[in-house]
Specification:
The protein has 6 helices and 12 strands. The chain has helices at 11-29, 49-58, 75-78, 128-138, 157-167, 214-222; strands spanning 2-6, 33-37, 62-64, 85-86, 100-104, 110-117, 147-153, 173-177, 187-188, 194-196, 238-245, 252-260. The chain is α/β, with parallel strands linked by helices and 274 residues long. The strands form 2 sheets. Strands 4-3-2-1-11-12 form a 6-stranded mixed β-sheet. A 6-stranded mixed β-sheet has the order 5-6-7-8-10-9, with helices on one face. The protein is globular and about 55 Å long.
Length: 274
C-alpha cells in the first residue's frame, strides 16, 4: 500500500497548494490512500465545510484536525455529516465528531486512521496513549485493518517519540503534526512502524509558523496582542510523508519525506517513480 500524508494546511496558500497538487500526486505516485491535516486551513484557524469538500474532491481520503478543530464554530455541526473528518480521539466524551475511522483504500484494503492530541505544553485532555491503545486493541492491525495510521498532534518531541516507541509494531505509521516545522528523523522503527516527529506544514515558510511575522514579533517584544494573526501569502511548500506498507504484515517498508515548492529544499519519494 502507498500512503501519503500532508501536514498542517495553513491558510489560503497552504490549502490551495494542496488542493491543486493532490490529483497530480495521486497519479504520479499511484497512491492508494491520502490523509491531510487541515486544522489551520481556514484563515489559519480551523476548517470550513467548503474547504473539507474541496479537499475530498481533490483526492484526500481522510482529513485530520487538532487543537484548532472547532475554531470555526460550524464545524461542531458539519463534522457529524462527514465521517472522513476526524478530530482528536482524546477530546472529552460528548465532543461532536469522532477521533478514528476505518476507511477503504483505492486498493480495496482497509485503513484505520486515528487523530490524537498531546498533553505536554498543551490542553490537558484524556491520555492519548491509553486512548489510542484502546482503539487499536478493538481494531487490530491485520486482524481488523490492513494498515493503521496515527496523526499525533502534539508540541513536545519527547511525547511524540514516546508514542512511537509505545506503538512500534502495532501500527503502520505514527507521524507528528502541530509545530509546523519538518523534522529530519523520518524512519522505520525496529518493530516496523514508520515514524516522523513532525511532518511540517503546507504553507509559506518565510513567515512565523505560516503567519505574517509582524504580529508574532510584536507579541514577543511587548507581550501585548494588538491584532489577529494573519496567514502569510505567497508560494507555499507542500510538506508530507510518503509511506510504503507491506500488504502481508501491515508494517512500513519504506518511508520518505515530501517537500515540494516554496522555500524549502525539495525532496520526494523517488522510489515510487523510478
Amino acid at each position: 500500500m502507498r500512503l501519503l500524508f500532508l501536514g498542517d494546511l495553513v491558510g489560503r496558500s497552504g490549502r490551495s497548494a494542496a488542493i491543486e497538487a493532490l490529483p497530480g500526486l495521486r497519479q504520479r505516485y499511484n497512491l492508494d490512500f491520502v490523509v491531510v491535516n487541515a486544522e489551520n486551513a481556514a484563515g489559519g484557524f480551523g476548517i470550513t465545510e467548503s474547504i473539507l469538500v474541496d479537499l475530498l474532491d481533490a483526492g484526500a481520503d481522510a482529513v485530520t484536525l487538532g487543537n484548532h478543530a472547532f475554531d470555526q464554530r460550524d464545524a461542531l455541526v458539519f463534522i457529524e455529516r462527514h465521517p472522513q473528518l476526524l478530530r482528536p480521539l482524546n477530546f472529552p466524551s460528548g465532543t461532536p465528531g469522532r477521533g478514528a475511522g476505518l476507511f477503504k483504500a483505492r486498493s480495496g484494503q482497509t485503513v484505520l486512521v486515528i487523530n490524537a492530541q498531546g498533553r505536554v505544553f498543551m490542553q490537558q485532555l484524556d491520555c492519548p496513549f491509553r486512548a489510542i491503545d484502546h482503539e487499536i486493541t478493538s481494531c487490530q492491525l491485520k486482524r481488523d485493518a490492513d494498515a493503521i495510521f496515527i496523526d499525533f498532534h502534539a508540541e513536545a518531541t519527547s511525547e511524540k517519540q514516546a508514542l512511537g516507541s509505545f506503538l512500534d509494531g502495532r501500527v503502520s505509521t505514527v507521524v507528528g503534526t502541530h509545530t509546523h516545522v519538518p523534522t529530519a528523523d523520518e524512519r522505520v522503527l525496529p518493530g516496523g512502524t514508520a515514524y516522523m516527529s513532525d511532518v511540517g506544514m503546507c504553507g509559506v515558510y518565510n513567515s512565523v509558523l505560516g503567519m505574517k511575522p509582524a504580529e508574532p514579533v510584536n507579541r514577543f517584544l511587548t507581550s501585548i496582542s494588538s491584532e489577529r494573526f494573519e496567514p502569510e501569502t505567497g508560494s507555499a511548500t507542500l510538506c508530507g510523508l510518503a509511506v510504503e506498507i507491506d500488504d502481508v504484515t501491515g508494517h512500513a517498508t519504506r518511508v520518505k519525506a515530501l517537500r515540494l515548492g516554496g522555500e524549502l529544499s525539495p525532496t520526494e519519494p523517488l522510489f515510487w517513480v523510478e
